[in-house]
Write a structure and sequence with these properties.
This protein is α/β, with parallel strands linked by helices. The chain has helices at residues 16-31, 56-81, 95-105, 120-126, 130-136, and strands spanning 6-11, 34-41, 86-92, 110-115, 140-145.
């Protein structure tokens, strides 16, 4: 993996992104690679400017984004304090398009992101799918697997 000089960790502002960031930091450190962390924020509700009663799900989504963003920021700040250079990129828009654009603009060699199957709701919420991204990427990808959680019956 000596040809990996630039690593991009993609955060879709979900809890699983913390695990992906952990892997990205470890790989960048071990390979001596430059690390980029991209926060892809996508508003699936598109309700700004409307005078409509917004469902609680939009508020809960906003709280989830803020909480995850703070956790990611804390983890990055801790690594920066230890001397690691991390380039943070925040984009608003459809994640698949923004990830592809960022990878090309920054000559990324490896992308690290949480990999799990997406249902229809998640596809709508995050504006694309990992499958879509994998087919179009100009570089290699490292998917961080999420272990299934127990389901209560």
């Amino acid at each position: 993996m000596e040809d990996v000089k630039r690593i991009l960790v993609v955060s879709r502002m979900e809890k699983d992104s913390l695990k992906a960031l952990h892997y990205g930091i470890a790989m960048a450190r071990n390979l001596g690679a430059e690390l980029f962390v991209m926060h892809a924020v996508f508003n699936p509700f598109g309700l700004e400017g409307w005078s409509l009663p917004v469902p609680n799900v939009a508020e809960e989504y906003k709280k989830l984004l803020e909480n995850t963003k703070q956790q990611l920021h804390d983890m990055i700040a801790s690594e920066k304090k230890n001397g690691m250079k991390i380039n943070e990129i925040v984009v608003n828009g459809e994640p698949t398009k923004e990830i592809l654009k960022t990878a090309r603009e920054n000559n990324i060699d490896l992308i690290v992101l949480a990999g799990h199957s997406e249902g229809r709701l998640e596809h709508m919420l995050f504006g694309g799918s990992t499958e879509d991204l994998v087919r179009k990427l100009p570089c290699s990808i490292f998917l961080v697997k999420k272990e299934p959680e127990p389901v209560a019956f």
